Amino acid sequence: MTGDSVGSVPHTVGSPHHVVPQLDAEPLGIIDAMNDDAMVTVHQIQHDEQGARRAATIGSIDARLSVWGQAARDAASRRAEALVEGVLIYVEKVGRSAETLECGELDPASALLELEYASLVQLAGNLLPAAIGQSCRLLWVDTDRLRERLTEALAPHVEAARGEVRRRQALYRRRARLWQSDPARLDRLRDEVEAMRVPRCGASSAERVARGLFEKHRADPRLIETGADIASSRLKVRPGTIARWIAQLDERITA
Predict the structure, then answer these.
(1) What is the number of structural domains in the chain?
(2) pLDDT (tens digit, 9 = 90+) per residue, 231-254?
């Protein structure tokens, strides 16, 4: 990867002030995108105690945009995969009652690029009714067919998310060219690019999606069995049962 390095001001080798460059332990924010507890940015800036940053250049901004763009596109794809796996965890427990989850207004591509999981859970809830209806045999849900239906439904949204990443890259690159003769504005643009975060997707993403779906299920009185109406309870789940499933997922998430 080429472009201006960010870190200590270089000194002549052998001088008393010479500092061996410290490389980031992680490639520009990509590894952090796999960590659910980390704040993910495009670049981790290192400063020498007495040094100052180099002036921003079009090349350095372009390099950072390339790294962020690849990481963001990959994360959007992984979030879609995590959504599918989380839905399967949820549906294996609640069966066809997942078909009646309430939908909400949401842009699917934006949900795949969000930093947190609430929008991903809502996207899963929006896709479930149609996907369940195409994957059921009486009360039994064919999980293999459900996986196929969800993957098909998500494919255009993944492409839209990747296209949005490319649009943002093009926007910042255009600004960099326009401001190449204005160092102050170029420095501010670099700061903006370095603050851009990669969508969150870690090892426990599927469990977090499933947990969010169980929470939505528990909050819907139509899906909770209270014992008052036995005749309509065949697709309902007891609150204590959902609480137990959520506790099990919490153990997996924190493991």
Answers:
(1) 1
(2) 444 557 777 888 999 999 999 999
